[in-house]
Specification:
The chain is mostly beta strands. It folds into two domains: 198 residues, no CATH class; 135 residues, no CATH class. Helices cover 2% and strands 45% of the residues. A hairpin with a 3-residue loop joins strand 5 and strand 6. The longest helix is centred in the N-terminal third of the chain and has 9 residues. The radius of gyration is 21 Å and the shape is globular. The two termini are 25 Å apart.
Length: 365
Amino acid sequence: MTCVLRNASLLALLALGCGGGSSDGSVPAVEHPHPVDGAYAWRQVDAPRGDFVQALQALPDGHLWIAGREIRHFDGSSFETLPAPPDTVATDFVSVISASSATDLWTAGSRLLHFDGATWVDRGAELPNSGTASSVVEGFSLARAPSGVWVFRSSTNEASRLTFGFLDGTGFQALQFSPNDPFYPFAGMTVLADGSLAVPGMGVLAGIGSQWQNTLRHGETSRTNGLWALSDAGVFYSWTPDNAGGIGLTSATSSTQFATVATVPLETLKVAGLKQTPVVGDGSGYPNLPSIDVVAVAATSTGALYACVVDDHLFPFTVFISLNGTSAELLSDRLVGVRAARMALHGTALFVVDVNGAVYQGTHR
């Protein structure tokens, strides 16, 4: 299936939002970032800023957690910034956040920490050969299970460069994994309803003592880049550049490989008055071409929603691709002048946080 354009002309929408395009068809600079409504009615949430946003979690109770250099909590009406953990340094960051409530919060990134609502505890120190010297750099990822957390650690400490295992109240149990397997997908690990550990791009582990199942993997030309979403029906959604240079939207289950279910052609991505068709990716290798990059994926009741940042080297803006079964649509919504970092769905509400920590909320219309 291919992607179709829905609703009003994207160029007309951008003209309404930015004062129109220039005579040569390029996009003018934007003085103030702002949303343009489409499938969602948007507003900017009054929130304290926090840079280097890496993680976003929306809980069923309406609470929102945002993490990067610091951690912010939204209770549905107002934000608070959590106190920094002890021994925090300027280079610390959080890339994974898992909260069940305001008194039970796990974070992973440059450290592995737990917060009980009052006190931070460094749980990474419980792993063997934990880095204590200032010259040792560590990076963590985690997936919460009912009785503990699965942990992956990479380190510059040669004695324990890669560590994987399970951490609970009794301590850490190290487990083996194939050194031939790429370790970067561990950034996207999650625990399934049956208790299995799923790592899109790598496989499924039924539990301690089990062997990795060769599922959730990708072909030679596909990837997740750590970006995927899991639906309530147990379907994983991700993306990959397709052979023609567009965007391939992919899906899998815990017992299958990822496969492309819809494609978004390059010409469809030539949106909002761009003079040239954008390249897929961050555009770093194409300084004279606009680029479009998938930055977040969220599962919906019928498929998935993809947030993409378009950058024509004058200013960025965020667009959204909706996958419904095997049909993809480029929505008319856009966040003009906004470089999205993370996205989360909660009921009919869609939350987007940009790289500077600004929070936007869209309500489905």
